[in-house]
Amino acid sequence: MSEQKMAVLIDADNVPYSSIKEMLEEVAKTGTPTIKRIYADWTKPNANGWKGVLLENAITPIQQYSYTSGKNSSDSALIIDAMDILYSQQVDGFCIVSSDSDFTRLATRLRESGKKVMGIGEKKTPLPFITACDKFVYIEILKQKPAPSKSETKQKANKKETASITPMNTVDQNLVALLKDSVSDLADETGWTFLGELGNFLQKKKRDFDPRNYGFQKLLPLIKSTDEFDIDIRETTNKNTKHIFVKVKE
Prior knowledge:
This protein is of the alpha/beta class. It has nine helices and nine strands. Helix 7 (173-186) packs across helix 8 (195-205). The longest helix has 15 residues, at 74-88. It is elongated, with a radius of gyration of 20 Å.
């Protein structure tokens, strides 16, 4: 299967420049960012921070003058470019980097045209824009802690798996209910659910679902931390591949 081509369109007025490297690495998990553009009034002093990272990451700056005080003029330029790219059929999907709800209708329109839409923004991003995307990732979780040393790894080897990054949300009863309902929805006649399908299903139910929001790098450690599920690791014909199944404890 060929790699998905992605257009990455960044609203510089509504996201921090310090995480651009992590943002692009996150996009690369979904596809290849073949178009990378960033929108701002580059004559303003508050845009200076972006200039140092544009060349390093091959991002094309798009100048948009602020014609009206207090209005984000970059929005219209980004939207127009997105529609031009859509009609050119150059890409398979879009990543809109912004914390602004003004792009809600754009995300909906792109999905209506059969394109995958990924959103990246800060925790303050309004819910309408989040739900308009196929997937939404918070910038706050992209900055990871350094990998543990060998001695730290040994110390934790026999301990319960713990959070590896600072969580934004707590593992509460609402999350446990979401996990239980989703496992039950996908379960076969014996009650087991394939973990790989569960992750995709959870994101369809909740666009911003991500184990990293709760401090875990992967879904399995998050599930284990609740102590509400049985885990079954099954061998396959490929000795290097194992299938993981989960089941709600009785």
